[in-house]
Design goal:
With 373 residues, the protein is an alpha/beta fold. Helices cover 42% and strands 19% of the residues. It starts with a helix and ends with a strand. The model has no long low-confidence stretch (mean pLDDT 88).
C-alpha cells in the first residue's frame, strides 16, 4: 500500500512538471509572435490647397469631395488648407505647415500659377506635388486634369439648338490654354448646331470674383443672350443667369432649385484622384512623375448631367447622337478646318489637332468669338 502511494505522488509530480513546461513554452511562443508582429503604420496623409472653402459650391467643393472620397477608399487622410492667399511666401508657409502635420504629398487645385512656384517646388525634393497645369513639370510633380472640353462641346450644341435670339453667351476668367480649350470647344459646338449664331464672351479676369461675374452676366443680357455657359470657380454666374431669366449650362453641378439650369458639365474627380493615387504612385514614390494624367469621355470621367425638361427635343436627339459618335471615336471636336479669331488657319481639312497641341499650345480663340467689353 505504501509503495502505491509513492508512485501516485510521483505521477502527479510528473504531470505538474509537464503542464508547467507547456505553459512556459506557450508564453515564450506568444512573446516571440508579438515581438515579430509588424508595427501598425500610420495612415498616409495627403494635403490639399484650396483657393476657397471646401464647402463652397462649385470648383472647390467638387475638388475637395473628390479627393476626400478617393483617399477614404485608399486608406488615406486628407488635410485641407482653405481660403489660401496667393503669394509665394504664403505658399511656402502652407507647405511647411502641411509637412509639420506629416504630409508628404500635396495637391494644388487650380490651373494658373505664378512662375516662382516652380522654383518653390524644387526646394522640396522629398515631397510629391500634384498640379493641374500644362505650363511646366518637375521631377517631384505630376500633372492631372480632365478633358472637360469634350463635354463643353456638347454644352455648345445644347446652347446652339436652345437659343431663340441666336445669341449665346460665355463667361470666362481670362485667356489661357485651359480656358481657351473649353471655350473653343463650346463655340465649335454652338456653330455646328446653329451656324448663324453669335457667341458673346465676357471676361471676369479671375477664377472667383462674384461681383465681376454678375457684371459679366448683366453685360451679356444687354447683348440679347438667352443661353450661356461659363468656366468659373463659384456659382455667381449661375445665380445671376437665373435672376436674369437666362437659360444656362452649369460648369460644375445641376442646381435643381433653378428653373433655367439646363444641365451641367461635370468631371468625376473621385475617380481621377483614385486612379492617380493608386496607379501612378507606388510604394511612397511617384511613378512617371513627368506624365500628365488626362482622362475624359472615353474613360467615363467627364459627362453631361441629366437634361432639364426645358431642353428641346432636337437638342436631346443631337446630344444622344454625339455621345454615340464619341463612344465610337467619331466626330472629333478639334478635327477638320478650323480658323482662329484672326482668321489664321489652325487645323487643315484632313488634320486632327494632337493631344500635345491641345494641352500646351492652344493660346488662341476660335473664329466666331465676339468679346464683350
Amino acid at each position: 500500500m505504501k509503495i502505491s502511494e509513492e508512485k501516485r505522488l510521483e505521477k502527479r509530480q510528473r504531470h505538474f512538471i509537464m503542464g508547467l513546461a507547456l505553459l512556459v513554452l506557450l508564453c515564450i511562443g506568444v512573446s516571440v509572435a508579438e515581438f515579430h508582429t509588424e508595427p501598425k503604420l500610420p495612415r498616409p496623409k495627403i494635403g490639399m490647397i484650396l483657393r476657397g472653402a471646401k464647402d463652397q459650391d462649385g470648383w472647390n467643393k467638387v475638388q475637395y469631395e473628390g479627393l476626400r472620397d478617393a483617399a477614404k477608399e485608399l486608406g488615406m487622410d486628407v488635410i485641407v488648407k482653405e481660403n489660401t492667399p496667393r503669394s509665394i511666401g504664403d505658399y511656402k508657409k502652407i507647405i511647411d505647415s502641411l509637412v509639420s502635420q506629416g504630409v508628404h504629398r500635396i495637391v494644388f487645385t487650380w490651373h494658373r500659377y505664378p512662375p516662382e512656384l516652380r522654383e518653390l517646388l524644387r526646394q522640396y525634393p522629398n515631397l510629391e506635388f500634384i498640379l493641374q497645369t500644362t505650363e511646366f513639370s518637375e521631377d517631384n510633380m505630376l500633372s492631372c486634369s480632365t478633358r472637360l472640353f469634350e463635354v463643353q462641346y456638347l454644352a455648345g450644341l445644347i446652347a446652339g439648338y436652345q437659343t431663340k435670339t441666336g445669341v449665346v453667351g460665355y463667361v470666362a476668367p481670362f485667356s489661357c490654354v485651359e480656358v481657351n480649350r473649353g471655350l473653343n470647344a463650346f463655340v465649335i459646338g454652338v456653330k455646328r448646331a446653329n451656324p448663324s449664331a453669335h457667341i458673346k464672351v465676357a471676361w471676369s479676369n479671375d477664377w472667383d470674383v462674384p461681383e465681376r461675374e454678375r457684371a459679366a452676366v448683366d453685360a451679356l443680357a444687354m447683348e440679347e443672350v438667352d443661353v450661356l455657359s461659363y468656366q468659373q470657380d463659384g456659382r455667381a454666374v449661375a445665380d445671376a443667369a437665373e435672376r436674369q431669366g437666362i437659360d444656362y449650362i452649369d460648369a460644375h453641378e445641376v442646381h435643381p432649385e433653378h428653373v433655367h439650369c439646363l444641365t451641367a458639365v461635370q468631371s468625376d474627380w473621385r475617380t481621377v484622384y483614385r486612379n492617380l493615387l493608386s496607379r501612378h504612385i507606388r510604394k511612397g514614390k511617384m511613378a512617371n512623375a513627368n506624365n500628365y494624367l488626362w482622362q475624359g469621355f472615353l474613360e467615363h470621367i467627364v459627362t453631361v448631367a441629366p437634361l432639364s425638361e426645358r431642353v428641346t427635343p432636337r437638342a436631346r436627339e443631337e446630344i444622344s447622337r454625339s455621345v454615340r459618335d464619341r463612344a465610337k471615336g467619331e466626330r472629333l471636336i478639334y478635327g477638320g478646318e478650323i480658323y482662329d479669331s484672326n482668321n489664321v488657319k489652325r487645323c487643315d481639312a484632313k488634320e486632327i489637332l494632337s493631344n500635345e497641341y491641345l494641352r500646351v499650345h492652344m493660346n488662341w480663340l476660335v473664329k466666331g468669338v465676339e468679346q464683350v467689353e
